[in-house]
Design goal:
Layout (H helix, E strand, L loop, with lengths): L22 H32 L4 H8 L2 E2 L8 E2 H26 L6 H29 L14 H11 L5 H25 L6 H19 L5 H18 L4 H10 L12 H25 L6 H7 L3 H29 L9 H10 L5 H10 L4 H27 L2 H12 L18 H22 L12
Length: about 475
């Protein structure tokens, strides 16, 4: 039986859990994660700047800027800078998250229910376990249950920044698994915000926001183009959503989900992919770092750090991120693989999954947002929870760094094999293994290199030795 002809759109025949990704998916993933990594480094720098500013002799100026109110009061938008960052700028972040989710559902890892089952189960367990750890910690210590959702979120940008800083290049399958976890995580974080952190509803504003979303959808379906149409409409929808009592970031998610993310004949990129490519730098490079700058600035003292590990609320957040995330994701993945009989890529091992699960304990951006919503009105407790998120994320990052460094040589070898392209045709050789002409091309390449070697030897005046040729 002849081998199937190669195609860049097929799924490799040896597709396993954490196996080789289809080439288009791998290419898209590389582009997306490159932007996220840059944004993650900026996020890290913004968080450090916030902490330094808030704990410097100029700490009062940090609070003054953060609490400065600007905006039209007549429209209900006289908000503090911190509020604008959380409700306004993060709407851009969630808009991109909505596009990512839509793309995963129609063209990515979540499009196949069987393939999606494992990362979805892992993500759900990775949210349920931290919440359970938080609840048990506060039930035992008599703390508040209001913060149960704080340790449930994963910050993919911060996680990738950690990878960039420590210089660890994960194989694309592990990065895709981490990204899929984060996308599903974002989906349920959105649902948590919408369901549990919605204040008294203003049905007139909510109806107006819904009508605006309908107009947005109709314009998309009729092929209307131009940012001058969509950006003003998006701002109107956001303002109405904010005044409705539903968290304003939901507007961003809804609009992101409406974009078409499937490619038609003749299209190199779908509209959703194109817009994501344009907006992601704004989200990762500006919106999220500014949110971090005005949210991560908490006073850090020896006493405040000690309180994080002695108060049930803050201890629950730290344990949820460090223990709950790792145990939940790893346990959910292992159980799902066991019951679905999914085979792990033989080049990887279960400790690799545990290392990625530990890395997912970095829960910066959305955890800070949920912490602000959960303890709104209690500034002191909000700052304590923020400190707990920072410390928990730092511990998770250190543990993940240690675990990943143990296997760094293996990861580098796997990544080099993925990227090897000896015939220089732009397609990695691993994707051409089932091409019946592949070995003929490779033989020709080796013969060409051998001829070049012999010619160099002749010109150098050295005796030719065919035994030394690359062939």
């Amino acid at each position: 039986m002849p081998a199937p002809a190669p195609t860049t759109d097929r799924t490799p025949t040896d597709r396993k859990f954490l196996g080789l990704l289809p080439l288009p998916e791998r290419t898209f993933l590389a582009d997306a994660l490159r932007a996220e990594t840059v944004g993650g480094v900026l996020l890290l720098l913004a968080a450090v700047a916030a902490l330094v500013w808030a704990n410097s002799p100029f700490g009062d100026s940090y609070e003054s800027v953060r609490d400065l109110h600007i905006g039209p009061a007549a429209l209900g938008l006289d908000l503090s800078i911190e509020h604008w960052a959380a409700d306004g700028l993060l709407a851009v972040f969630f808009f991109v998250a909505g596009i990512e989710l839509k793309r995963e559902l129609v063209a990515g890892e979540l499009r196949d229910p069987k393939a999606a089952a494992l990362p979805v189960i892992a993500a759900l367990c990775g949210m349920a376990a931290p919440a359970l750890v938080y609840v048990l910690t506060n039930a035992a210590g008599g703390g508040s249950m209001d913060g149960w959702a704080v340790p449930t979120a994963t910050d993919i940008a911060f996680a990738l920044a950690v990878l960039a800083v420590i210089g660890t290049s994960l194989p694309s399958a592990l990065r895709a698994f981490l990204l899929t976890l984060a996308v599903v995580d974002d989906l349920f974080a959105i649902l948590i915000i919408a369901v549990f952190f919605t204040s008294d509803l203003n049905f007139a504003a909510l109806g107006g926001a819904f009508a605006g979303l309908v107009v947005f959808w109709v314009l998309l379906r009729t092929g209307v183009r131009g940012w001058c149409v969509y950006v003003p409409l998006a701002l109107v929808v956001w303002g109405l959503m904010y005044n409705s009592g539903v968290h304003a970031t939901i507007a961003g998610v809804a609009m992101g989900l409406m974009l078409r993310c499937s490619r038609r004949d003749g299209e190199r990129h779908s509209p959703g992919e194109h817009i994501e490519h344009l907006v992601r730098p704004l989200s990762a490079g500006l919106a999220v770092p500014l949110f971090a700058l005005f949210s991560a600035g908490v006073a850090v003292t020896g006493k405040s750090i000690g309180d994080v590990f002695t108060q049930p609320v803050t201890l629950g957040v730290v344990l949820g991120l460090v223990v709950g995330k790792a145990v939940g994701i790893f346990g959910g993945t292992w159980l799902a693989a066991r019951f679905t009989k999914a085979e792990l890529n033989p080049d990887l091992a279960w400790p690799d999954v545990f290392a990625v699960a530990t890395l997912a304990g970095i829960g910066f951006t959305v955890s800070l947002l949920i912490g602000e919503l959960a303890f709104e009105g209690d500034a002191a407790l909000t700052d304590e929870v923020k400190a707990a998120v920072l410390i928990g994320s730092l511990i998770a990052a250190v543990l993940a760094t240690f675990l990943l460094k143990l296997r760094v040589r293996k990861y580098e070898a796997l990544l080099a094999e993925e990227e090897r392209d000896e015939d220089e045709d732009g397609i990695p050789d691993v994707y051409e293994q089932h091409d019946p002409e592949y070995h003929l091309r490779m033989a020709a390449i080796h013969e060409r290199k051998a001829a070049e070697h012999r010619e160099k030897a002749r010109l150098a005046g050295a005796p030719r030795d065919d035994a030394d040729s690359p062939a």
